[in-house]
């Protein structure tokens, strides 16, 4: 007991086979090439992941980088690329 996380432990409905980055007008993805759609989804993921990680670290870039498993400078480049406000 205690070593396996069950869906009931997550506190909300668990939806399977669903990409949260594809919510909204599904037809828009069908009008893009595979490469365009993939890049759009990756950008959404990166913005969400980096923004939430930075927020969880209270804006501390060094801590956020450690959480992401990357060097601080690499995180700073990504934050700049995706124009994520660091609060500084």
Strand-residue proportion: under 5%
What is the class of the domain at 23-81 in the CATH system? Mainly Alpha
Class per helix and strand makeup: mainly alpha
- End-to-end distance: 44 Å
On the 0 to 100 scale, the average pLDDT is: 82
Per the principal axes of the C-alpha atoms, what is the gross shape? Answer: flat
- Annotated CATH architecture of the domain at 23-81: Orthogonal Bundle
The total of helices stands at 4
Would you identify the regions where 5 or more consecutive residues have pLDDT less than 50?
A: none
Order of helices and strands: HHHH
Q: Which percent bin holds the helix content?
A: 40-55%
**What is CATH's topology name of the domain at 23-81?**
Arc Repressor Mutant, subunit A
Radius of gyration: 16 Å
Number of strands: 0
Please outline the major beta sheet. Answer: none
In brief, what are we looking at here?
With 88 residues, the chain is mainly alpha-helical.
Word description of this protein:
The chain is built from four helices and no strands. The chain has a domain at 23-81: Arc Repressor Mutant, subunit A (Orthogonal Bundle), CATH 1.10.10. The longest helix is centred in the middle third of the chain and has 23 residues, at 34-56. Helix 2 packs across helix 3 and helix 3 (61-68) crosses helix 4 (72-81). By secondary structure, the protein is an all-alpha fold. The protein starts with 26 loop residues before the first helix and ends in a 7-residue tail after the last helix.
């Amino acid at each position: 007991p205690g070593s396996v996380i069950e869906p009931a432990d997550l506190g909300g409905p668990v939806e399977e086979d669903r990409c949260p980055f594809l919510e909204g007008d599904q037809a828009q993805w069908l009008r893009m090439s595979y490469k365009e759609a993939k890049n759009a989804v990756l950008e959404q993921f990166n913005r969400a992941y980096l923004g939430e990680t930075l927020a969880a670290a209270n804006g501390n870039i060094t801590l956020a980088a450690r959480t992401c498993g990357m060097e601080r400078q690499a995180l700073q480049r990504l934050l700049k690329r995706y124009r994520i406000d660091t609060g500084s």
